[in-house]
Amino acid sequence: MTQHTLVDAQERDRQDKLASYRSEFYIPANTIYMDGNSLGLLSKRAERTLHDLLDSWKTLGIDGWTEGAHPWFYLSEQVGEKMAPLVGGLKSEVIATGSTTTNLHQLVSTFYKPDGDKTKILADELNFPSDIYALKSQLQQKGYDPDTHLIRVKSRDGRYLLEDDIIDAMTDDVALIVLPAVLYRSGQILDMEKLTKAANERNIPIGFDLCHSIGAVEHSLHDWGTDFAFWCTYKHLNGGPGSVGGLFIHEQHFGKVPGLAGWFGSKKETQFDMEHTMDPALDAGAYQIGTPHVLSLAPVIGSLEMFEEVGISAIRAKSLELTGYMLELIEQELGGMDFTIGNPVDGTRGGHVLLEHKEAARICKALKEDGVIPDFRTPNGIRLAPVALYNTFEDVWHTIQKLKVIMDEKRYEKFENKRGVVA
User: Fold this and answer.
1) Pick the catalytic residue: 12, 45, 136, 235?
2) Which of 383, 390, 395, 412 is catalytic?
3) What is the architecture, at CATH level 2, of domain 48-310?
4) Residue 383 bears catalytic tag
């Protein structure tokens, strides 16, 4: 393997076609930010559109619902249209609304229709806890015991899932399937096309959690025939803490009655008729429940401008280059230090690298003290996410060099090997 140097990293940055976008973001001083898969950084465009929406409230008052550059009444549809290319959906199939878990509740309430012996929900044991909590509560609402009715496909190694194992679990008693697109710890990308095809053949509705994939990898949900999907916007999409989420409903389900009804799911033309019989929208807009969180949607507008300009293919290509470079540096610099690569090393990896080490929590604290912001995941995971729009190859180089010094000098030993309140 070619020995990589700082000069090599700097040359890669000079050739990077996306390099100019780094200046669009506020990079914390004296910091290498490697936690964009938990919370993306603020961009100047997101800041601008937040101020634009504040100004519309300030200057227009209630007329902001229908006037100004971004009328609030149509904001969810406007942002959904901008997100549609990132998930491979038609603009009518995507809406910006709610949060990850509220959208999951909405979608499960809609698509989980137990009938006869077909009563179980299929998930996996590596899924993010919030999704599992929601699925358990939905089962309980229907009077079923989650211990017997929530199937969680086992991982053979604690890191990855095999698609064939998931397909084998698509038995006749399964009424709904909910899976992650990218596993939040290992970063494995599931073969969504293969899984959707298998579910469709068995007439089982299937949906995906895109929280760790949207803005980092490509999707073709419409063409695959995926029934639904849901996601947040504060990770790779850089929408800000608690920014409004999104959902996808395949057009084949337009006209389906949403499980949870609310007035913003009405047709725009009739919403203010104030009738007690709902007239739902005929597209993904029907799955809105409450009034749009305008100020939490505002930064997403500016952030998505960059995704429109660059395109998800170019972002994915650079992401693979950054994580590939990081993996090569880990092999070059960290041998013999008891690290284990916990993510796929091929094209099935998402937007981050997972390093496993028995001292992971204290190593993360030492990295943070030295100006690198990582992400600790229980019990032994260090997630490092070089983000295509604002991280550089030099960032990656310095991150691994700092980690090498921390390990060589055992700087981590002064910290307790225990996570903080927020890991």
Assistant:
1) 235
2) 383
3) 3-Layer(aba) Sandwich (3.40)
4) yes
Three-class secondary structure of residue 138 per DSSP: helix
Superfamily name with CATH number, domain 6-44+311-408: Aspartate Aminotransferase, domain 1 (3.90.1150.10)
Q: Model pTM greater than 0.70? A: yes
71-83 tens-digit pLDDT = 999 999 999 999 9
Catalytic, 235? Answer yes
Is residue 202 among the annotated active site residues?
A: no
Q: State the catalytic residue, choosing from 230, 234, 325, 393.
A: 234
pLDDT in tens, 218-233: 999 999 999 999 999 9
List where CATH 3.40.640.10 sits in the chain: 48-310
Alpha carbon distance 49, 62 (integer Å): 18
Q: Where in the chain is the domain with CATH 3.90.1150.10?
A: 6-44+311-408
What token pair was written down for 291?
């009034």
**Burial class of residue 344 in the structure, from the number of CB atoms within 10 Å of its CB (0-12 exposed, 13-18 middle, 19+ buried):** middle
Single out the catalytic residue among 8, 13, 73, 128.
128
| Catalytically annotated residue among 35, 124, 131, 209 | 209
Q: Would you say 17 and 314 are in contact if contact means Cβ atoms under 8 Å apart? A: yes
Determine whether 365 is an active site residue. Answer: no
Up-side HSE of residue 138: CA atoms within 13 Å toward CB?
31
Chain-centroid distance of CA 339 in Å reads: 26
